[in-house]
Amino acid sequence: MSDERKRENEEEKLKDFFHNVIGIKSEAVLEVLAENSEICKLKAKTLLMKENEKVKLW
Fold it and tell me: Is 23 left (phi over 0), alpha (psi -120 to 50) or beta?
């Protein structure tokens, strides 16, 4: 699968999340959120962060 196709697939997953879990209905807003978000895979931990929030890695 090409990198472009992977990114498109990730953006669709992000749109689904923002629409179904958070309840955002505007397609324009979903587009912007999907373009400016990324999916991170974590091991047995959950991380919630705000935009521009600094994360200290140890």
Answer: left
